[in-house]
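ARCHIVE CARD
CATEGORY: sequence design from structure
SOURCE FIELD: tokenized fold
FIELD CONTENT:
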């Protein structure tokens, strides 16, 4: 699996950094885990495969947050939108889904060789 690049792309880093700024400005959104994730993403630290899979799970569980009032409103952002950004925003969702698919495919290949 080391051949799969799990370094967050620039767009994901920017979304996470925006989430950190909004969280500080509005004093809401996200958990300490989300803040830690945002720091890793905004600094473009290479993530573990487990972390990428946890990101995919987060986005699947929180897709409903997109329907809330204030989602995407930079003047009065919902806590859910800030949290979403902390995990990399839409860019993070798309990126981790692609990476999860690559990881799952690599897992299948390893099982066939075993």
């Amino acid at each position: 699996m080391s051949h799969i690049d799990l370094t967050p792309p620039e767009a994901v880093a920017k979304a996470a950094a925006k989430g950190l700024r909004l969280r500080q400005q509005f004093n809401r959104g996200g958990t300490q885990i989300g803040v830690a994730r945002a720091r890793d993403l905004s600094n473009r630290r290479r993530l573990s495969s487990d972390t990428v899979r946890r990101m995919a799970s987060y986005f699947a569980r929180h897709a409903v947050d997109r329907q809330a009032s204030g989602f995407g409103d930079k003047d009065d952002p919902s806590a859910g939108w800030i949290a979403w950004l902390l995990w990399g925003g839409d860019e993070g969702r798309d990126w981790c889904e692609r990476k999860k698919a690559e990881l799952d495919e690599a897992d299948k290949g390893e099982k066939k060789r075993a």
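CARD ANNOTATION: The chain has a mean pLDDT of 94. The chain has five helices and no strands.
SHELF: design records, drawer C
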